[in-house]
Amino acid sequence: MKIVVDAMGGDNAPDLIVKGCILARDEYNVGVILSGKEQEIKKILESNTTNYKNIDILNADEIITNEDKPVLALRRKKNSSLVKALNAVKNNDADAIVSAGSTGALLSGGLLVIGRIEGIERPALAPLIPSMKGGFSMLIDSGANVDCKSNFLYDFAIMADIYMKKVMNISSPRIALANIGAEKGKGNKLTIETYELLEKSVLPINFCGNIEAREILRGEADIIVCDGFVGNMILKTLEGTVKEIMSGLKEELTSSFVSKVGGALIKPSLRNFKNKFDYSEHGGAPLLGVKAPVIKAHGSSDEIAIKNAIRQAKVFCDSRVNNLIEESIMRR
Amino acid sequence: MKIVVDAMGGDNAPDLIVKGCILARDEYNVGVILSGKEQEIKKILESNTTNYKNIDILNADEIITNEDKPVLALRRKKNSSLVKALNAVKNNDADAIVSAGSTGALLSGGLLVIGRIEGIERPALAPLIPSMKGGFSMLIDSGANVDCKSNFLYDFAIMADIYMKKVMNISSPRIALANIGAEKGKGNKLTIETYELLEKSVLPINFCGNIEAREILRGEADIIVCDGFVGNMILKTLEGTVKEIMSGLKEELTSSFVSKVGGALIKPSLRNFKNKFDYSEHGGAPLLGVKAPVIKAHGSSDEIAIKNAIRQAKVFCDSRVNNLIEESIMRR
C-alpha cells in the first residue's frame, strides 16, 4: 500500500510533515510518497534517517496556499504538491492521500480530481470531536457542503456509520441529528425532513434522534449529522471557545503571586486536561464519499499528527470502507 | 413606568424572582407587577420587605412549563402567569415584560399576544454573549426563526444596531455576519444574499463583513447576525463547551493532593475567570421586533439577574428603541 502525502501543506511543512512520514513508515510498514519540492524534502530526509526504503518523492515545484482560491488553484497550479498528489491517487500510483494544507483545495481536489463514489451526490468532511468522557464523535458534514438537502444528510449518516464501525471499531454507532431541540418535530425544514429519512431508513442504523449543540462535547452520540454550514459553526465555535478559555485561564493564573504558585502546582493537571482536546492523537478528518481515502490533517499538525493521519489512511484502505459505502448506497 | 414580571418562570421561581423585583424596585424606582400565585408571592414579599410601594400582584393560578407546547399552552392556559403578564402589556397595564420561564412560550406570546412592529416580518431573540476582552456581542437571531430569508437577517441587523446604540451605549456598533469564511462570496445562499443587503444598506450601519465562529468570543463584532438555527447552534455550543470545560477542570483539579492544593490557591482566579461568562450582569435577551419590550431572562436567573433584566427593560422603554426601529424599518 502506498499513501501520498502533501509535504508542502500545513503550518509545519515540510519539516514535520516529512518527519511524520518517516515515523509512519517505520511504525506501520506502509509506503509513503512525499509530494513537494524534491531538494527540500531530500535534505530533511537525510538529516532524519539513513533508510529510504518505502519512501518515494514526487517532485512538485508549486504550493497551493490558504490564500489561493481552491478551484482556480487546482486548475492553474498543475505542478503543485497537492495536484500532483491528487493525480497520483487518480492514476492508482497511490491508494490514499493525506494533506495538512488548504482545506478548500483538498475538498475540491477530492471531488474534481479523484471523483465521487457512484450514488453519492455530496462528499462530506467528517472530523472527530473529542468527548469529555474520552472517545470521539464524528461531526459530518463540517464544511464541505453549505447548502444541503435532506437526502445529502441521510447519506452523510450512512457513510459515517460505516466509517465509525470499520475504522473506529464502534459496533453500533449512535447517530444523532444536530438540532435546536431534542423532540421530534423540532428544527428547520432540513432537519425535520432529515429526521424522517433517518427514522425510516431501510439500512440498519442506530438513529437516536436529535441532539442539542449543548450536548455535543458530552459524547452522547458517536455521529452527529448536520449540513456543512452548521457543522462549521459548531466546530469553529467549539475550537474558538476552548482556545479562548485556555488562554484566558493562563492570563488569570499569572495575575498574582499566589495564583502563579497555584498555577505551577496544577500544571500537570492542566496539561492532562488540554490533551483531552488534542486532535493529533487520532489523525485527521476523512472526506467521505470520494473514490479513495482523503484525509485532511489539521493545519497545525506536528509529526505525530501526520503519523496518525497516515495510520488512519491505511486503516481506511484496509477496512474497505469505500466498497461498503458503495454497496450501502445502492441499497438505500 | 410599570414592568410586569412572570413570577413563576425559571429554575428559581418564585422565590428569587420576587426578591429580584424588590431589588429592582428599590434601585431603579420602577413599578413592578408580579404575575403569579398571589398567596405564594405575598409570603415571599412579606419575608423580604415591609414596603409594598410600586409592587402589584397579578394573580394567576396556572404555570406554563418547559414541557408545555408553546402555542398550545398560550391558548389553553389563559390563567397562567405568562399569559396574564402578556395581556397586561397588550392592554397597556404594563410597559414591558420580563420572564425567566419557557423561551418558546415567551417568543410565541410576544409574537401572538403583543404583536409585531409594523414592517417587521420576524421578531428575533438577541442574547448578549460575553467577550473575553470584556464587553458583549449581541447574537441575533439565536433561535426564534429557524428558516430565514435574507431580508429577515437584514432587519435583525437594523434592530440590533438601534438596541446596541441606545441600550448599550455603543456609538457605532460593528455588525458582522456569521459565516464559514471571512471573504465576501463565502457562505451559503442565505449569507451570500444577506451580505449584499448589508453592504448596500441605505441606513447608515457599520457593516464589517463576515465573522467566523472561531472569532465570536474575541469581541471583534458588537452584533453577530445569523439565522435562528445557526444562532442556536453557536450559543449552545458555546454554553456547552464552557460548562464542560469548567466541570472537567474541576475534576482534574481534585485528582491528586498536589493539584488540590494548587486548585485551592487559584480558586479566586478561577472565580474571576468564571465571572467573565456570567450572564446575570447584563440582564437577559431582548426579543426585538415586537411592540413592547420583552426580555427573556436566563432560566437559571437569580435575584441579581432578575434585577438586571428589569433595569434592561426599563432602559429599553426609556430609550425609545421601538419607535426608532419603526422609523428605520419604514426607511429601509
TrEMBL record, chains A, B:
Keyword DNA damage on entry: no
Pathway annotation: Lipid metabolism; phospholipid metabolism
Keyword annotations: Acyltransferase, Cytoplasm, Lipid biosynthesis, Lipid metabolism, Phospholipid biosynthesis, Phospholipid metabolism, Transferase
UniProt signal peptide: none
EC number of this enzyme: 2.3.1.274
Localization per record: Cytoplasm
A Gene Ontology molecular function term of the record: glycerol-3-phosphate O-acyltransferase activity
UniProt main location, coarse: cytoplasm
Family: Belongs to the PlsX family.
Function: Catalyzes the reversible formation of acyl-phosphate (acyl-PO(4)) from acyl-[acyl-carrier-protein] (acyl-ACP). This enzyme utilizes acyl-ACP as fatty acyl donor, but not acyl-CoA.
Name of the molecule in the record: Phosphate acyltransferase
Source species of the chain: Sedimentibacter acidaminivorans
